[in-house]
Design goal:
Rossmann fold, 7-stranded mixed beta sheet, 13 strands, binds adenosine-5'-diphosphate, binds magnesium ion
Length: 287
């Protein structure tokens, strides 16, 4: 039977924009001692801005044009920033091939040119001879017909309440806060330092995020619960595997909301400490 206190807990959390899908998750939240965050769209806004354009052997305008055509059919936040920066209208009929490779980037055929736009993993897997840059930011390298043509740096901002969110989790007794990301090590470490995150894993493919979660489980006692918080782009398997999968509801994809046990309607990471607090109070109520 469902304890009556569950209804007060669910009611109280929904007032704070926290939707909990069942009494067992309210119970599990109480025992969360590790919170694992996705980076993009979860701790950061997921709204990227182009901060540098660095062409090789072509003009800046051409580099942006190639990148914009490569990204035109992608929904990734990176893609949106590049398309916005291009400003000119895009003739989708000129794109005769499009392939999105998760956590790598894009392959397209545009005006009979073979364009690659993505990270170092994409350049390596496509055997492109390129020059890795030291710039701190999310770097999109571009190659045209097999030749390296430069890079674009884009930057995301940390959400206003992310720092407070992690501080409050620690105050509430959560032992470890972890961040998983497909982004590069430099960006990941910079954000982790700023936010006071204990452990960071970067350059992860979507399936590797599940592997890291499995590693974390191995270090836990059965009673210690692990929460994962994500915005949903590629996160559904990790959300499903965690003891408590928490999705950002406003930005999050339908698949993430479906796979999650808890949905945050306002996308504020500070709601996680709130949810834990409510779960602990709820269980103390004696009927
Ligand atoms: P996160 O784990 O931070 O949410 P993703 O798994 O969505 O990030 O992406 C990981 C990395 O893959 C990005 O940082 C980027 O380097 C590359 N990438 C993914 N999608 C694209 C895209 N549409 N264009 C260029 N690069 C991309
Ligand atoms: Mg993401």
């Amino acid at each position: 039977s469902i304890p009556l206190s569950f209804f007060s807990g669910i009611g109280n959390s929904s007032k704070h924009g926290i939707l909990i899908k069942g009494s067992n998750y309210l119970e599990a939240l109480k025992n969360v001692d590790t919170v694992v965050f996705d980076k993009t769209g979860t701790l950061t806004k997921g709204v990227f801005k182009v901060t540098k354009v660095s062409p090789v052997g072509i003009s800046e305008k051409e580099l942006i044009e190639y990148a914009a055509y490569a990204e035109a059919n992608s929904n990734h936040p990176i893609a949106k920033s590049i398309v916005n920066y291009y400003k000119e209208s895009i003739d989708l009929e000129k794109i005769t091939y499009f392939e999105e490779i998760a956590a790598h980037g894009i392959k397209v055929k545009y005006n009979d040119l073979h364009i690659l736009a993505g990270n170092d993993k994409l350049m390596s897997s496509e055997n492109i001879l390129y020059f890795p840059t030291d710039d701190i930011g999310t770097v999109v390298y571009i190659a045209v017909n097999g030749a390296y043509r430069g890079y674009i740096v884009i930057s995301d901002e940390i959400k206003e309440d992310s720092k407070e969110a992690i501080k409050n989790l620690k105050l509430s007794g959560v032992k470890e806060v972890v961040m998983l990301t497909g982004d590069n090590e430099k960006v990941a470490n910079k954000i982790a330092n700023e936010l006071g995150i204990d452990k960071v894993y970067s350059n992860l493919l979507p399936n590797e995020k599940v592997d890291r979660l499995e590693d974390i489980f191995k270090e836990k006692l059965p009673k210690e619960k692990v929460a994962f918080v994500g915005d949903g782009i590629n996160d559904a398997p990790v959300l499903a595997r965690a003891d408590v999968g928490i999705a950002m509801g406003a930005l999050g994809s339908d698949a993430a909301i479906e796979a999650a046990d808890v949905v945050l309607m306002t996308d504020e990471p500070s709601k996680i400490a709130k949810a834990i607090e409510i779960s602990r109070k709820t269980n103390k109520i004696v009927w």
